[in-house]
Design brief:
single chain; alpha/beta; globular
Length: 409
């Protein structure tokens, strides 16, 4: 807007800029006066945070990460992805992760829901095999020969290459149809504090908010992508499995730029909810989102009749705007936010894009506003520093580093 004013020859007036600043200040003030509320944090580190790592991460490290996270008070953890290992090698052992959680639920003070991304019907069928539940879906149609392969991989693998075929089922070294075994001894029960029914399994699926991103990452149009979601949601619902939807690049696309139409995001979100999704996470995949555009998007979603309780927000911190955008979300009634311990993750389609907003930074921000999360931020910081070391990365949480330094001193 300022650039257009300069081109038009109109005098530059700072009022428009400062009005945004004053509006944001009022937002902080209103949030600070809110009565104590609870915000749900969805920890995406074990899946979204790890999937782009180039070096193979041992299964034991993934399991230890989940075990540690389970002891922080988290109620929702993304644990893996049932996607072709050809496209996301890091997620190749997600079946083993699920099998482990079923057999030896991590010690936790609260029930935890573990979520797994399923890009297509085959992915959900593989997950059901591990769960030992029957597949009641209709037989899959014969493979198509068009360029729009319905079994193409999801984001964030590289753009599909010609000739990709549906992968074989992900297998486990253990029998995927065997029901979880009982602990071998009473000592194991006491040690792990396993409580009956303290875990549940959920799935997630996604659609993109722009045609260019959808075609680059799923090799199909938005409409075709949504059509693929229908049988996945139907099968999950028939097995009483909760479904979470994602709308990618909702606040900026690496191919089409930052101006993604809010009306399109609202349309896709409504479609997923109408199909039966229990919640839809609106994802700023590239981190291009700003406070004004986040506010505009949330207003569009509300105007479309979508309730804030059915939404979550998923911010990447590429340009350092994730926490500001979070406050805007709070102002508009959003009470579920995604984050990744240590700020793990990133978008391979946005040059310079950093990871998800760090869970430690998000929790510190929320607690400073008087909002409860139920999470142990010190324990989370220790986990962030540990997993960063395991991955050979610099620990990237500002709040986490400050808290740990304070403890050491």
């Amino acid at each position: 807007m300022l650039f257009s004013m300069m081109l038009s020859g109109r005098p530059f007036v700072a009022k428009s800029v400062f009005s945004h600043v004053r509006s944001l200040q009022r937002s902080f003030s209103r949030i600070a006066r809110l009565p104590t509320e609870f915000v749900k944090i969805v920890e995406v580190g074990p899946r979204d945070g790890l999937q782009n790592e180039k070096t193979t991460i041992p299964l034991d490290t993934k399991i230890e990460l989940i075990d540690r996270l389970a002891q922080t008070g988290l109620k929702n953890i993304e644990a893996g992805s049932f996607v072709s290992p050809k496209w996301v090698p890091q997620m190749a052992n997600s079946a083993e992760v699920l099998d482990y959680i079923l057999r030896r639920p991590p010690s936790a003070s609260v029930p935890i829901s573990y979520n797994y991304l399923v890009p297509n019907l085959k992915g959900l069928q593989n997950l059901l095999q591990v769960l030992g539940q029957p597949d009641t879906s209709e037989p899959e149609p014969a493979p198509v020969t068009s360029s729009n392969d319905p079994n193409a991989p999801p984001t964030p693998p590289p753009s599909p290459k010609p000739g990709w075929e549906e992968p074989a089922p992900i297998t486990s070294s253990q029998d995927p149809n065997q029901m979880p075994s009982s602990p071998s001894s009473a000592a194991e029960v006491n040690q792990r504090q396993i409580l009956p029914g303290n875990t549940s399994t959920e799935i997630s699926l996604f659609a993109a908010a722009t045609e260019a991103f959808s075609k680059a990452n799923t090799n199909c149009t938005i409409a075709e992508s949504l059509a693929r979601c229908k049988p996945i949601i139907a099968l999950a619902k028939s097995q009483n499995i909760r479904v979470r939807g994602y709308v990618s690049v909702a606040l900026g696309c690496p191919y089409e730029g930052p101006d993604v139409p809010p009306s399109k995001v609202a349309e896709i979100t409504a479609s997923l909810l109408e199909m039966g999704a229990d919640e839809v996470s609106i994802a700023d995949t590239t981190g291009m989102g700003t406070a004004p555009r986040t506010r505009e998007l949330l207003k569009a979603l509300s105007s479309s009749g979508i309730a804030s309780k059915d939404l979550a927000l998923h911010f990447h911190d590429t340009y350092g705007q994730a926490l500001v955008n979070t406050v805007v979300g709070l102002e508009h009634g959003i009470r579920t936010f995604d984050s990744s311990v240590g700020g793990l993750g990133g978008c391979p389609y946005s040059k310079g894009a950093t990871g998800n907003v760090a869970t430690e930074d998000l929790v510190y921000c929320l607690h400073s506003l008087g909002v409860e999360t139920g999470l142990d931020i010190i324990q989370m910081a220790k986990i962030g520093a540990w997993i960063s070391g395991e991955l050979g990365r610099v620990y990237d949480s500002r709040a986490g580093k400050a808290l740990l330094a304070k403890i050491e001193n």
